[in-house]
Amino acid sequence: MFEGIFCPSITITDAAGAIDYELWGRHLDHLAEAGLDGVLLFGSIGEFYAFPSEVKKEALAFAVERVAGRMKVLLGVGDTAMDRVLDLTAFAERAGADGVVAVSPYYFGPSAPCAEEYFGAIADATGLPVILYNFPARTGADLTPELVASLAAKHPNICGIKDTVDTISHTRKVIAAVRAVRPDFSVLSGFDEYYLVNRVSGGDGVLCGLTNVEPELFARMHAAFQGGDFATAVSCAERIARLMAVYDVCDLFISSIKAAVAAKGLPISTRICEPAVQATPEQVEAVRVLLAE
């Protein structure tokens, strides 16, 4: 159901922090025209933790209309309060989203029984596809292969996972465990440089941040892999591996991605939500140099 290249979109705001729909619309157009398979609103790079539900709802309605079926539109519904998670999930279904992405509740990382209840409640509350989001470095809890397989077996609409774990062995074990009970379950990697090894391991692609910056590169890599042109796919992967240095330039990787999008020509603000250390002019220039290499 979810295969290929998916972009966790930056949330584009002006210098005061209000969403800039004109520039965000242009960004969404670029992603769709580049040939991406889908876009996620309010993931980690989209600063989901910093925007109130009403802003997220307004943005989703805008994105669904703007994208107009050219790629899938997903909504991140992660939160620390169950009522807000379920409210956003219900709105996503009403607004015409193609699915929701649910990260583990953070601060108190959930135990396996708690995670079963949490993700199960989301699945039971909607007819939309639900994609699990595993980011233990941020949430403090891992969605183990056994837990993912259990959720997939119990809930038909839990149909995929974004596995943001910096070791392909974890993702490979998720693939093996979940495919034993759900052959159609999608497994996407959250790290840009894992596309090829994800696919070789039996996975379905990536949902990763540099797609904001060079979506054409990722779309070309995916098309080449699908077509058996492995030399081109490897060439694209080599550039992606070099571009990974962009993430480390600023205090927070979200700033780096915004700086890179700006360097590519979209005149966006690099501001990220406070509290934060904002990107400096020197860091923006360093990102520009990396992209030019």
Describe the 3D structure.
By secondary structure, the chain is of the alpha/beta class. It has one domain: TIM Barrel. 47% of the residues lie in helices and 13% in strands. Strands 1-2-3-4-5-6-7-8 form an eight-stranded parallel barrel, surrounded by seven helices. Helix 2 packs parallel to helix 3 (82-95). The protein is globular and about 50 Å long. 47% of the residues are buried.
Question: What is the name of the CATH topology?
Answer: TIM Barrel
Q: In whole angstroms, how far apart are the ends?
A: 36 Å
One letter per element, helices H and strands E, the order comes to EHEHEHEHEHHEHEHEHHHH
Structural class: alpha/beta
- The share of residues in extended strands comes to 5-15%
Number of helices: 12
Strand order of the largest sheet: 1-2-3-4-5-6-7-8
Q: CATH class, anyone?
A: Alpha Beta
Helix content: 40-55%
- Give unreliable regions as ranges: none
Count of the separate structural domains: 1
- Look at the structure and name the CATH superfamily: Aldolase class I
Largest sheet: 8 strands, parallel, barrel
Indicate the overall shape. globular
Overall pLDDT confidence = 97
CATH architecture field: Alpha-Beta Barrel
* Number of strand elements: 8
Q: Return Rg in Å.
A: 18 Å
Q: What's the layout of helices and strands?
A:
Blueprint: E1 4-8, H1 21-34, E2 38-41, H2 53-67, E3 72-76, H3 82-95, E4 99-103, H4 112-124, E5 130-134, H5 136-139, H6 145-154, E6 158-163, H7 168-179, E7 186-189, H8 195-200, E8 205-207, H9 215-226, H10 230-243, H11 253-263, H12 281-292
Parallel strand pairs: 1-2, 1-8, 2-3, 3-4, 4-5, 5-6, 6-7, 7-8
Helix pairs in contact: 1-2, 2-3, 4-6, 6-7, 9-10, 11-12
